[in-house]
Amino acid sequence: MELTLLGTGAPAGLPRPDCPCANCSAALGPDSRAATALLLDGALLLDLTPGAAFAAARAGRSLTGVRQVLLSHPHDGPAVEVPAGVPQPGRVPDGQELTLLTGHRVRAVAMDAPGTGYAVTGPEGQRLLYLPPGGAPAGLAEPFEPYDMVLADVAGRPDALAKLRAVGAVGPTTDVVAVHLDHDVPPGPELGRRLAAAGARAVPDGATLAVGAYEDVPDVPRRTLVLGGARSGKSVEAERRLEAFPDVLYVATGGSRNGDTEWSVRVAAHRERRPGSWRTVETCDLVPLLAEEGPPLLVDCLSLWLTDAMDSVGAWDDAVWAERGEKALRERVRELTEAVRSSRRAVVAVSNEVGSGIVPATASGRRYRDELGRLNAGFAEQCEQVLLVVAGQVVVLRG
């Protein structure tokens, strides 16, 4: 089954008309995108957009062989001129199946938001799933065979991928292509980096893909360390890296701190931002969790883990530190880094970068700063990817 993407952008396109934002200003040349529309084997058109005939021509295709036009958007939208010889667009009711004379079978997939998804099976058995902008499949419960290709609003609804992965509809070999791309994510390398973290990719308008053919699916790093200063956006970046995966275990190392109202507000803000399917455990005992098989871990954060570890070895007392505390802390850090190295589960860890700030005025403050630097360096050595977040912008240090 051959697929040509006549457009890969949001319904308004990218850049949006008359939008002065930085991302729209940068969406030029290959980063500009028309509204998403798919042409399958020259016979099935999913979503009719303005200029579809010209887009097909630019891609070396024609719409003269189209036998069916189906709409996925939440509403029919503004009137679009139907090119001569192309059937009037329609929509398949949720759950019903349409069989074309060309041998393609199309089943309408119910969504959790207005709109219609389409599961298409080609004449030779290849399977494709196309989701509308802003939507995720509803009512997924039974195990699924993995689709060969999924086209979805990965940037806007990463949880749709999590739902599909949870039932096996997206597997390790599924080619996940991001469509309906809008101005919420900077185009170019940053878009590619964010999609790769979800196991997805973007292709330019006009690209032709073979459904079911082997593609170099982005390899999601198993271990990632996200560094940053206070309010840099490091926790948001860490959470973003796993929001396309189901059953994430969020490990909070800061505890509840009963009586600290400001801390409770911080914890509540983090909890509200996380997907509802994630579980949370409050602990600093990370080594057993890393040794277990299970879903991805998000550890937030290592700097609070270090505070707990230094408390437990008496690191704040100079005499205890010199006699046995320093050696005990080194052993705790060694156990943690070895556990990360041998862990078979995906791990995303957050830590503060404090070495670039003001030199602490106290000996205990300088001790903590130095030990956190050592911990970050040791943990980073075991990670395939290390990121530094500055003012909400991500700098890739490794990977």
Secondary structure: elements and pairs:
Blueprint: E1 2-7, H1 22-26, E2 37-40, E3 44-46, H2 52-58, E4 68-70, E5 97-99, E6 105-109, E7 117-121, E8 127-130, E9 149-152, H3 158-166, E10 175-178, H4 189-197, E11 200-201, E12 208-210, E13 223-228, H5 234-242, E14 249-252, H6 261-273, E15 279-282, H7 286-291, E16 297-300, H8 302-312, H9 318-342, E17 347-352, H10 363-381, E18 385-390, E19 393-398
Parallel strand pairs: 3-4, 8-9, 9-10, 10-11, 13-17, 13-18, 14-15, 14-16, 16-17
Antiparallel strand pairs: 1-2, 1-12, 2-3, 5-6, 6-7, 7-8, 18-19
3D architecture notes:
This protein has 399 residues and is of the alpha/beta class. Strand 9 (149-152), helix 3 (158-166) and strand 10 form a beta-alpha-beta unit. The longest helix is centred in the last third of the chain and has 25 residues, at 318-342. Helices cover 28% and strands 21% of the residues. The strands form three sheets. The protein has a seven-stranded mixed β-sheet. Strands 15-14-16-17-13-18-19 form a seven-stranded mixed β-sheet, with helices on both faces. Strands 4-3-2-1-12 form a five-stranded mixed β-sheet. Helix 8 crosses helix 10 (363-381). The chain has ten helices and 19 strands.
